Every structure is written in structure tokens, then in C-alpha cells.
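1st attempt posting a full record on here, be nice pls
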Amino acid sequence: MSEFKKKVIITFLGNTYHDTRVVNLIDSLSQLNYNVSTISFDWKTENFKSIIGKTSVYKLDKTKSSLSFYFNFIFKLVQQLLKIKADLYFAEDIYTLPFVYFFAKKNNAKVFYNSREIYAHLAGLRNKSIVQKIISQIEKKFICKVDLVLVTGEMDAEYLRETYSIDNLFVLRNLPKYQKNIESIDLHKKLNIPSEQKIILYQGVILEGRGITKVIEVIDKIPNTYFVIIGEGEFKDKFIQLVEEKGVGNRVYFYGAVNHTELLPLTKGADLGLALIENISISYYYALPNKLFEYIMAEIPVLVSDLPQMKKIVEQYKVGECISLENDNEIVTKIASMLSSEKKIIEYKAHASSAAKELNWQHEFKKFKEKYLN
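the predicted structure (as C-alpha cells):
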């Protein structure tokens, strides 16, 4: 067996096994014979027990206070960083960046920062100006010092370039691995939905501003249609309560989180994929979520809000339609129209099949590898 090229550490405030981007990065680096270790965290999964190994996921508790949560996170992160010396560090978010930068420079190693969001302007922080300022100052201090900043879209790169006057940026989009002839999991059968009914799908973290509220509020007006939500998140209980208040519990299904290997077969079982992100923050305005590309890979039509980066993909590859979220009746009309046009559905699926050959992780990572890992 050949020796490993170099040691790589990936850090992430999230569960590696629930994050396709981190999983893909681990797989691609490992295929290049890098020795990859991951330090990640989980505080969302019920009854979760820490997973210790090369791909570690440490249990955190957020039920007591945010302060104790972050102190515990920092303690465990630093504790593990002290144990491993690497040649290359990936900070997969702003939260791990300061600590990763310190250890990388201490070990004379390179550090790549994955700015997967405009962190100072996350939707959840829009009414928390002090937290926004703290995050902005942390990012300002370290983003100019790292060896490379990875972003998920061209507009993210433009924003960071203008904000921090940096040029060490590379666009590595959140694309799924290419899979041909994905075998569909029958969502109708799995959820006891009549086969003649249509399924519209949201997949991803369950948060505010993702269009979930809007769809729940109008689902009873869309004929012969069920709404399936795959994922977990801090707003799940609020949405379950909204479903009960609206009396649409028979039309909305919360599927829960799934392993990344199950996701695309489940996605393929839907009739329409939704990415109705609302323009409630700078981070959301620049959204180019992996769910959009997962829908494309699964060859289902997509409906997205008319935000610039998503709109560009949908119009360029002709894989679905865009919509303004200002009018609830327009959402109803658009979804019903798309689902009722068999001709359009066939066209969108064919275009998605072609687009998937380009919009995939292997194709995207190759450009990154050739520029920074050779």
C-alpha cells in the first residue's frame, strides 16, 4: 500500500454524516491519497452518541444555554486539534476558523476557509446586530490571513472580494456526486400517499425563510398535492404547530433527516423540488443551495424563488421555473400549473439529465484539485 501524501484535518460545527459537502470533500481527498481526519459536532439528533474515529462527531448539548454550548464546542475542538498535526486544515465554517488558523500556523501548515454562507448576514442573525458585528470582526481578522477562501457561488466571491479586499477566492459549488440511473424510492408507498397524487418536496435544514411557511399556508389550495419535508432543524416544531393550526396534517409530511446515501433516491420519488428561499438577509439573497443541484441530479423539475444565483442556473439549464414570493396565490397557480403539464415535466427532466453531467461534484472538484492540490 502506498504511503499517504499529506495529513488533512477538516473541522465543522455540524454533523459530517449529514453534510454532503463535507462527505464529498473527505471522499475526494481520500481518493487522492490524503490522510483525512474530521472533527465535527451534533446537537440536533435525538439520543445521539459521539462517534470517535478518523471521522469524529462529538455530542454537544444546546438545551442549557448558548454560552455553555459554545464553551463546550470550543473545548472539544481545541482538545482534538491538540492531538493531531496536519499539513492542511479545512475550516468548514466561521465558527471553527480562528482555532483552526491558530493550529495551522503553529504547525506551519496551510489553512483553507470554506465560507459556505455570508456568515455576518445569516437570516437567523438579522435582528442580532451585536452578534453580526462580532462575526464580521472575526471574519475580517482571519479571512485575509488564510491561504484560500472557498465559496459556493460567484456572487459570494464578489461580495467577499469587495467587503474584505481579498483575491484568494475559489468557487467550489455545493454539487452532488454524479449518479446515473438513480433508483427511486417510492415516496407514495413509503408515506401511504395515493399513487395518483403529486408530491412537492423540500429537503434541507428546517429554518425560517426557506419558503416552508408559505407552502404550508397554501397546500390546501393546491389540488391533489402533498408536501414532504426531508430534514431537521430548530424550526421544525414551529412548522408542525403551524400544520396543526392550518388543519393540513393529512397533506404535509415531516420525513426527518436521512443519510446522504438515501437522499437522492428519496428526492427522485417526488414530482417537484422546491427552493423557495426568501430574501430576508444578504446570505439568503446570494443563496445557491445544494438542494437545487440535488433536485437536478435526481432529474425532477424545480421551482425556485427569483433570487439571482438560483435564477441563473434554472434559466441557463432550463430545469424548471422561477417565481416571486410576494403573492401566495401566484405560488398556488405556479405549482398547480407545473404539476399539471406532463409535456413540461418531461422537458424539465430531460434538461436536468443533461445538466447533471456538468453540475456534479466530480466535475467541480477536478478544477479545484488541478489548481490547488497538484
